Amino acid sequence: MTDFELIQEILSGNLTLFRQLLERHQAQVFRTCIGFVHHKEDADDLTQEVFIQAYQSLASFKGDSEFSTWLYRIAVNRALNYTRERQKKSIFDRLDSFFTGEKAVQSFSDGATEENPEQQLIHNEEREMIAKALEKLPEKQRVAIVLSKYDDMSQREIANVLNTTEGAVEALLQRAKTTLRKELLHLYRRHKHQ
After folding, report:
1. What CATH code is carried by the domain that includes residue 40?
2. How much is the pLDDT for 115?
3. Which residues form the domain of 99?
4. For residues 90 and 27, is the Cβ–Cβ distance under 8 A?
5. CATH number at residue 121
6. Measured distance CA(36)–CA(135) in Å, rounded
7. Domain match, 126 and 35 both
8. Co-location of 175 and 82 in the same domain
9. Same domain, 39 and 113
10. How many other C-beta atoms are found inside a 10 Å radius of the C-beta of residue 139?
11. CB atoms within 10 A of CB 55
């Protein structure tokens, strides 16, 4: 069954078929979410929220685009909202820690038990730098680079998700790569001098 046929069956009352849609698209939605939040637990939660929203909004899917494109739009919007909220919370956490003298502790462990502690530390530091660099990107550039690198989407697919042209996506990706290189170099130099 195609996605569209599944959706028609679900909307006709066969709600158990939604699980098939979820299984088809869960990995891609998770990759999109992890590209924005960088933590498995947060990405799992966001993925679940995306599918809840998709389920609740399924009747509004008109089939003008692929179901996957519609689902990516939901995922991108949820992830952007999450990161905006987290940034606001982070500012307040930093203020709290400034006044209480405590340091916020973040875990970047992804269960990599094969690495020795030194390799794991280096890996975590690299992930933290990439996450910080991604967060500095303007929103559209961040969306384009996440969909390109984490989801391995073509420029045409990204253009569909963003409702723009392939040329605009190419320009976004070029600017994002340039900005990321500069930001990562800056973060790396700062990190070496600590």
Report:
1. 1.10.1740.10
2. 57
3. 1-105
4. no
5. 1.10.10.10
6. 8
7. no
8. no
9. no
10. 11
11. 13
Q: Which two tokens stand for residue 56?
A: 């609740």
What is the per-residue pLDDT for 96? 47
pLDDT digit string, tens, across residues 20-48: 999 999 999 999 999 888 889 999 999 99
Per-residue H/E/C for the chain = CCHHHHHHHHHCCCHHHHHHHHHHHHHHHHHHHHHHHCCHHHHHHHHHHHHHHHHHHHHHCCCCCCHHHHHHHHHHHHHHHHHHHHHHHHHHHHHHHHHHCCCCCCCCCCCCCCCCHHHHHHHHHHHHHHHHHHHHCCHHHHHHHHHHHCCCCCHHHHHHHHCCCHHHHHHHHHHHHHHHHHHHHHHHHHHHCC
| Mean per-residue pLDDT over the chain, rounded | 81
Per-residue pLDDT band for 167 (boundaries 50, 70, 90) equals: very high
Q: Is the pLDDT of residue 129 over 90?
A: no
Domain check: are 91 and 141 in the same one?
no
What average pLDDT score do residues 129-144 get? 86
Residues 122 and 89 in one domain: no
> Are residue 89 and residue 180 in the same domain, yes or no?
no
Say which amino acid occupies 161.
Answer: V
**93 in Cβ contact with 159 (< 8 Å):** no
What pLDDT sits at residue 107?
34
One domain for residues 120 and 79: no
Residues 141 and 69 in one domain: no
